[in-house]
Amino acid sequence: MYVEEDLVFYNQPLVNQIEVFDFMADELEKKDYVTTGFREAIKKREQKFPTGLKLSDMNVAIVHTEAVFSKTEKLVVIKPEKPVMFRNIENLEPIDVDLVIGLILNDSNKHLEILKKVSQLFQNQEMMKDIQNVKSQDELSSLMQNYFN
């Protein structure tokens, strides 16, 4: 089970990347799903390898770090209250991101499998419209659990 109800966050008042990463790390550390080095590793990786993606209906970021910082196989889904600026993976330009998916994977062999599933999600225009139009935490959580679990 990759998506847990309490790892899906809707309408979070996060204003920048650092807040997103600290919030994610706080939630994952509470559950003992990541090592103490996760927080800094995810920030450093994002600086070197930006993860923002411009899609037709909404912009997303797929944040992750090396498997050594993860203790389990989970996805964190954050739909911030307002878009958060990330850098575009393709041209490094700033883009406003509407959805952040954090990959917490301790098995590097599953990394490509999950990335494939995430990219299929992004290509599913109906599903992306549903995500864009969610009105509650429960709605977002159900969509993500039904898709990934």
TrEMBL record:
**Species:** Siminovitchia fordii
Where is the organism placed in the taxonomic lineage, from the top? Answer: Bacteria, Bacillati, Bacillota, Bacilli, Bacillales
Q: Which residues form the PTS EIIA type-2 domain?
A: 1-147
What this protein is called in its record is PTS fructose transporter subunit IIA
Q: Which Pfam families match?
A: PTS_EIIA_2
Q: Identify the PANTHER family for this entry.
A: PHOSPHOTRANSFERASE SYSTEM MANNITOL_FRUCTOSE-SPECIFIC IIA DOMAIN CONTAINING PROTEIN, PTS SYSTEM FRUCTOSE-LIKE EIIA COMPONENT-RELATED
